[in-house]
Amino acid sequence: MPIGFHPFELIIVLAIALLIFGPKKLPEMGASIGKSIKAFQKGMKEINEPDEPSAPATKLDVIEREIASKRNATKTTIVETQAE
Asked: Can you give the residue ranges of every domain in the chain?
């Protein structure tokens, strides 16, 4: 859900921030907020896109494959038993 600001609303917010924090502190805060947003986006990108596309199989992957193999073997046994 994108957040949109109209120009007039943005001017009011900036004026209030200027009154509260002063002209010396405002640029520092802007830079700090920008760095925080950039770090957050980088973290989200790392979470969504792992560094190694062919990462080694985890224990969960191995267990899932074993379960799938045993399930297929069970299905085959059931089908063979029904055919007899």
From this structure: 7-83
Distance, CA of 5 to CA of 7 (rounded, Å) = 6
What pLDDT shows up at residue 1?
46
Q: In this structure, are residues 2 and 10 in contact, taking their beta carbons and an 8 Å threshold?
A: no
pLDDT of residue 56: 65
Residue linked to tokens 């002209």: 23
Report the alpha-carbon distance of residue 43 to residue 65 in Å, rounded.
Answer: 30
Task: Look at residues 41, 46, 14, 45 and name the one whose alpha carbon lies nearest to residue 30.
Answer: 14
Buried b or exposed e, range 51-74, using 16+ CB within 10 angstroms: eeeeeeeeeeeeeeeeeeeeeeee
Contact in structure between 17 and 26 (CB atoms under 8 Å)? yes
pLDDT at 38 over 90: yes
Measured distance between the N- and C-terminal CA atoms of the chain, rounded to whole angstroms = 60
